[in-house]
């Protein structure tokens, strides 16, 4: 099929034609314009679905009639194709106009695929055209396959998308649940647990109806606030598997998420034991009634609990689908049991039930039971601690968030409705049982009132029964004594037993599913490396079978305790810690004011969430203070561990947002404070290029800026702007990451410029923020200045002039071997690449061996022999030191050693400070800061100053006094009186030979020739210039002699940097001064401050 490239193919030629599909083309020709003007019909508009990922990339609406033209245009669901390849950005074909808005552009329309994460299970990620694609000049010879124009124009179809699509297809068979089956049912079943049937009556007996309602209300306040916070968090983006762990970790970061994730998963595992023990208690009570005990009550609970948890494990391992079906059946049984209880309260009681304390609804019983009657050892908070686990089921739906169709909609809706329904049920049961059953009853039908007996206000006595002996001896019935009160009250007792079984088993099943799911999500994030084994999932639902068995082991251990009242407080503290962090997550995200915090669930308040978090923490200590302390100690330990390990994840947490806000506020606040000399600190721009290429330069600068000042590693990209910007942008993140990995507290900045000096000038002016602006430029000494092109020397000396113009201090660092190790890094990179290729080849061969069997293995051994593949040697440290094992001829071994010299601890020695000129004190401050560092603390300061030969002692005393006022410790002070003495002839001859190639020697030539040479080589050193600054040249040569004499053994020399007056000192002469001054010496820092005080002796 082919398409006519004429722009009139799809135009309506006459108004009467109603069989055309409705696509009006903006035609660029005059004929088309005329045709459009003649058409009397109002304009029709194309309907396009830009988000569809179906077979067709666009959807077209038709006018009434047949679709012949459309069928000619699209056949078998394929996109229209031309008979030849057309340009992706061609605006002359009608297919083009069906792609976007009719503009000649590759701009993509908004689509959800552009915003997905790579590997998203909800669909493939598509890469939109980059800014370069739509901004740079369009390439003329772009070849696009037929039929792919709409793909290219909309920025679709990257090669990596196929994997994501395949992954989505793999997940297609997974079972997903809606909000009712996935959240509401699970939460209701988990909340209506063991407490509803076998503890709520006891709680009412102990606390009374009034305090019982308050206990339920306090629990509901905690869970409701947590539910609101959780709803806000989970509607602020797509929620994956992991429940509470996922919500907390993505909100507060891996440190909080990783610590609470383990605790929460463990709490769910222990909850399995709690619910199973509740179930076993009920079974044991039934065995007691029928006198069918196996051993004794405690051991029977252990036996029945163990058998039960094995069966539950089997249901869980069978898959989520079976587990969900079981939950629905259990819910139906549970609802029938609850209804059976309420029906039983209105069925007239018989003599047997009255003897056990049940008298139907009685005002006297309600009044008697309204107040508390705590037994020995019990109180409000101890009773609350027993009840609170009944409210912990609110996360049952969130815990399987990965198995929900739409977690953002299902979790808030299902959780909040479940809280409401279960709260009504709890309150109803508590009030009804408190109004029907007395606290103590003997169970004997003969304990009736004797005529003339004084009741003393007893409700049972008023109703004809005497239970007074329960005050002196234990009784078996009544709210305080009989845990099976609800079974007695109900219309049909066995239904309550079935309800108990249903409630306990469903809660245990939900917890048994939740714990492995949360634990699997935690392990998948690889926060704890040792737990990676449990991350693996099996089957279409990615079931965490390994996690199931771990949960089973934990549950079995706690089942052996067999005491429900011992287990419940432990659960309370773990769940409360989780609830506290969920509430705090919501508060923290709101407080950070990140633009990314946009929850769809709007019924929340940050201060209410904070109140919820504080309430949870308070309740933890009230319930059991030592358990709360243990919980927080464990959480704190895990937090410190995760913080120390620094997992390589970035979830855009609110902690990051708050750090940004805090940094921004502090930076703004700092701008309101005037600079003070006492707070001066070196804030350095270091011209390292890529920070890994000149590590020694960065190390020495970092030594005096770490934890005290700003350090910015700067790189200037010189060359064609387009290439430079591309290279610069591609390396920014990598180079900053290198600084972080090597624990260097510095920033990386780069600029693209036409020349090196322009780039540095831009950095000097624009770097920094507010008061955090650089005040010192640190550069390496240009060792190859004699062989360098003229422009490089002009740029190098020029940036020193520019720094002084901007009133920025300058530090020039010289070491014997130089700084640049880029060639060494290149060799290392190539070797690593070869090693990776070799390992990849070996892996491929092993895969082929395993696939082809014995015959294939023999054949591949032959191939391997030809390839001469050896076993990989274990890789040592990946730092620069690994290169030392390479052949010496491949690089300069001394250069590598020199590049690490400032990383090593400096032994006992000296830092010699030659304070020849007063620059404000920077030359003294830098070495002082160095002596505070661990690597330099064994080095003592020796101070060298110039002075008159007849006043050496006086000037030494004066300098010592000044240093003591500055509170700078020193080992010795030397006053040099012979600095201005002429250097010896050998030294001067070396200097003259050094500058010889750059001298003009115009005095030896006639005037015309001299003028011509000046015009042709203005950069050369003239005889007049040499004569004018001869004394200064003498001084540089003489200083080198003195340095050789006094400081040859120093660990570091810090020396006043000579300043070249602009227009007076040529660049080559200045470089010769620096060369002769620092020649054949230990590492040298040439320092010149901006001549503003950086030291003060005032307090």
UniProtKB/TrEMBL annotation:
Keywords, in A-Z order: Cell membrane, Chloride, Coiled coil, Glycoprotein, Ion transport, Membrane, Phosphoprotein, Potassium, Potassium transport, Sodium, Sodium transport, Symport, Transmembrane, Transmembrane helix, Transport
Domain of life assignment: Eukaryota
Q: Where is the SLC12A transporter C-terminal domain?
A: 694-1099
Q: Give the source lineage, highest ranks first.
A: Eukaryota, Metazoa, Chordata, Craniata, Vertebrata
Where do the Amino acid permease N-terminal domain residues begin and end? 90-157
Keyword Amino-acid biosynthesis present in the record's keywords: the answer is no
Please report the stretch or stretches of sequence annotated as the Amino acid permease/ SLC12A domain.
Answer: 182-685
Q: Which organism is it from?
A: Bos taurus (Bovine)
Spell out the subcellular localization from the entry.
Cell membrane
Q: Which GO terms describe its molecular function?
A: sodium:potassium:chloride symporter activity
> What chemistry does it catalyse, as a reaction equation?
K(+)(out) + 2 chloride(out) + Na(+)(out) = K(+)(in) + 2 chloride(in) + Na(+)(in)
**The family this protein is said to belong to:** Belongs to the SLC12A transporter family.
Transmembrane segments in this chain: where?
183-203, 209-239, 260-281, 301-321, 328-347, 380-402, 414-438, 492-515, 545-564, 570-591, 603-627
Query: What is the name of the protein in this document?
Result: Solute carrier family 12 member 1
Major place of residence? membrane
